[in-house]
Design brief:
The chain is an alpha+beta fold and 295 residues long. The chain is 39% helix and 19% strand. It has a domain of 149 residues: Jelly Rolls (Sandwich), CATH 2.60.120. The longest helix is centred in the last third of the chain and has 19 residues.
Length: 295
C-alpha cells in the first residue's frame, strides 16, 4: 500500500421519506499519487450502487472480475468479500436495504446476489442511467451531488412496494442479535417458513439461514474492528459454538483466515467503518436497522 494514500469518507443520512430504503449515501475520496493504486476488501453487505469520478476502481467477487472502465458499479446483496483496487478517485455509494431493492430494482435479488455488474448495460437497472450520467459536474461539488442523488430517488418515491410489512418484519428479526434460527424469525414475524424463504430470496438475495449466518459473522467482525483489544475470542458473537466455527465462517465470508485479515492493510474499509459508525451507529452496512415508511 502506498504510504501517502489518504482516504476521506463522509456519510449522509437520506431524508426521512427515503430512509426506509437506504442505509446511507456516502462519499469516499481516495487521494493517492497518480498512477498508483490501493487494494482493499469489502465485507458482505446489502446491494449497492457506486458512482465514480476519476480513476475507475477494479473489482472482483469469488474470482469473477467486474466490467472494466465503467462509470458505475452495481452489486447485488453479497455473502463474500469483494476485492478491489482503486486509484485517485471520488466514489458516491448508495446502499440499498432490502426494502430499497423492493422499491427501486426490477428483478429478484437472488438473481443478482454475489454479482458485480454495469447497471447501464442491464435492462433491470436502466432506470439508474440518468443518475449515473448526471450526478457529477465539471468540478467536485459534494452538496450539489448529494442533492442530485436525493432528488433522483425522491422523484420516484411514490412507486408502490409489494410485501412492505413482511420485508420490514423479516429484516428486523434477522438483524436482531437474539435471533439465532429461522424458527426464531417465524416466531418474531408470525410468518410461515416458506413465506420467509420466498421473501428473503426475492428481496434479501439469500435463504434466511445464510442471512442469519452472515449477520452472526458481521456482528463479530464489526465488534473486533471497533475494539481490536478484545481479540477475536472477545469479539465472537454468542451464537457461535466455538472459535473453530467462527474461523470456518471467516473463510466462507471473507475468503481468508482471521489472521490473514488482520495482517492485510485496510486503508479504505477502516476509514469507512469508523465514519459509518459515527454517522449511522452501525459500523457495517449489514447491521443497519430497518425502518417503515412514515416512521
Amino acid at each position: 500500500m502506498p504510504a501517502d494514500c489518504r482516504v476521506k469518507v463522509r456519510f449522509h443520512q437520506p431524508p426521512l421519506a427515503l430512509r426506509p430504503y437506504f442505509t446511507t449515501f456516502y462519499l469516499t475520496e481516495i487521494d493517492i499519487p497518480e498512477g498508483q493504486r490501493v487494494q482493499d476488501h469489502l465485507h458482505p453487505e446489502w446491494a449497492n450502487l457506486r458512482l465514480f469520478q476519476g480513476t475507475v476502481p477494479e473489482a472482483e467477487i469469488a474470482g469473477t472480475k467486474g466490467p472494466p472502465g465503467i462509470a458505475a458499479i452495481g452489486t447485488g446483496p453479497t455473502s463474500t468479500t469483494i476485492r478491489f483496487t482503486a486509484g485517485r478517485c471520488r466514489i458516491w455509494g448508495i446502499g440499498l436495504l432490502p426494502l430499497g431493492w423492493a422499491k427501486f430494482a426490477r428483478a429478484p435479488a437472488h438473481l443478482w446476489a454475489d454479482r458485480i455488474f454495469d447497471p447501464c448495460a442491464e435492462p433491470d437497472f436502466a432506470q439508474f442511467g440518468p443518475l449515473i450520467e448526471g450526478v457529477f459536474g465539471a468540478c467536485p461539488d459534494e452538496a450539489g451531488e448529494l442533492e442530485r442523488i436525493t432528488a433522483f430517488f425522491a422523484a420516484r418515491s411514490d412507486m408502490p412496494v409489494a410485501d412492505e410489512d413482511r420485508i420490514v418484519a423479516i429484516h428486523g428479526a434477522i438483524v436482531d442479535p437474539e435471533t439465532g434460527s429461522v424458527a426464531d424469525v417465524a416466531a418474531a414475524t408470525g410468518l410461515a417458513s416458506y413465506t420467509i424463504e420466498r421473501i428473503c430470496r426475492r428481496y434479501f438475495g439469500f435463504a434466511p439461514r445464510l442471512l442469519l449466518r452472515r449477520q452472526r459473522f458481521m456482528r463479530s467482525l464489526s465488534q473486533y474492528m471497533l475494539d481490536p483489544e478484545l481479540k477475536w475470542i472477545g469479539a465472537i458473537d454468542g451464537h457461535y459454538h466455538d472459535q473453530a466455527q467462527f474461523v470456518r465462517d471467516f473463510r466462507r465470508f471473507m475468503g481468508m483466515t482471521p489472521r490473514a485479515y488482520v495482517a492485510h492493510p485496510r486503508p479504505v474499509l477502516s476509514a469507512v467503518m469508523r465514519a459509518r459508525f459515527e454517522a449511522a451507529g452501525a459500523a457495517v452496512q449489514a447491521l443497519h436497522l430497518p425502518a417503515r415508511t412514515g416512521d
